[in-house]
Design a protein that fits this description.
With about 325 residues, the chain is α/β, with parallel strands linked by helices. It has 14 helices and 11 strands. Helix 7 packs parallel to helix 8 and helix 13 packs antiparallel against helix 14. It is globular and about 60 Å long.
């Protein structure tokens, strides 16, 4: 799959995940088969105001290319100014967030709130495309709620304003992340536009991934929550789409080893105190279903150091 002039070796990409898709997790996903990764969403206004925390979210490494930066905001001028600032950063595509359903984002008119104002979406995309030196993409939802499904209308607008690809999450904002993703809605967008379309929603195994591609005809797939504790999923999906072969699930020891690798790298990038607290959720996902996971999770949630977590996980591996 190609997005503008960016070639992806696999059509399976990592979604932008707040608090999850940092540099360390992206690096792991790329190594295990993701064709592209996406940063946590970053605020256009925060970039303009020089917010230090936001600038940290923009850290990328040459070896993780291709990587996308996802930008959110609802002011066309601010979005354009932030996009111009990002021209000097190392990334491959710039994604505009029109799908985040979080209340703190929506209340400011950002994220999926934009689905209620297609005209504003058009102005934002036009402003960003005019200044961006890399392919611009858009991530949308089906609509605001079941009574305002407008994904096809929005997709045609963003295509006309110059996006190089569109990702569609098969849910409305009202659904948040509940219920089943509507693959028919994703298909309706694919049938309506000529730019590549990436399907997103309920991709948790290779078989689901293939069914979505066959049902909707999409060019690529975006995996989000399915990668929690299972970044091997990208490689399994890629292989299944290519050959029909189902690769084995990771062993308990492989999960423990990767959890430790992830924790150590997070500590090196963010410092031990912050990293170990942020890693608690990842640890719970990695060890879910393993023998002794419940007891280990409690111990990990009370740990403050890498050595403590290492001791807990290594003990699990010995049992």
């Amino acid at each position: 799959m190609k997005i503008g002039n960016v070639e992806l070796k696999s059509p399976v990409v990592l979604a932008p995940l707040a608090g999850i898709s940092d540099l360390v997790f992206r690096r792991i996903c790329r190594r295990l088969g993701a064709g592209m990764t996406t940063t946590e969403m970053v605020s256009a206004k925060a970039i303009i105001h020089g917010n230090a925390t936001t600038r940290l979210l923009l850290r990328t490494e040459p070896e993780e290319s291709p990587v996308a930066v996802q930008l959110f905001g609802s002011d066309p001028d601010a979005m354009a100014e932030a996009a111009a600032f990002l021209n000097d950063h190392d990334f491959d595509t710039l994604d505009i967030n029109m799908g985040c359903p979080a209340a703190k984002i929506v209340k400011n008119g950002d994220g999926s709130a934009l689905m209620r104002d297609p005209a504003l979406i058009g102005r934002i995309v036009k402003a960003v495309v005019a200044v961006a030196k890399r392919p611009v993409t858009a991530k949308i939802r089906l609509g605001w709620d079941a009574n305002s499904i407008n994904c096809v209308h929005v997709a045609k607008i963003v295509e006309a304003e110059g996006v190089s690809a569109i990702t569609v999450h098969g849910r409305t904002r009202a659904m948040m992340f509940s219920g089943e993703a509507c693959w028919d809605g994703i298909k309706s967008v694919k049938d309506a536009v000529k730019v590549p379309v990436i399907g997103n929603g309920d991709i948790k195994c290779p078989q689901q991934a293939k069914r979505l591609m066959e049902h909707s005809g999409v060019d690529g797939l975006m995996v989000g929550r399915g990668s929690y504790g299972d970044p091997w999923l990208f490689g399994r999906i890629t292989e299944y789409l290519k050959t029909g072969e189902l690769l084995p699930m990771p062993t308990a020891q492989e999960k423990i080893d990767l959890a430790l690798e992830h924790a150590k790298a997070a500590m090196e990038h963010n410092g031990e105190k912050i990293a170990m607290r942020e890693m608690r959720k990842h640890m719970a996902w990695y060890i879910k279903g393993l023998h002794g996971a419940t007891t280990a999770k409690v111990a990990i949630n009370n740990s403050e150091s890498f050595e403590e977590i290492k001791e807990i996980l290594m003990k699990m591996g010995e049992e």
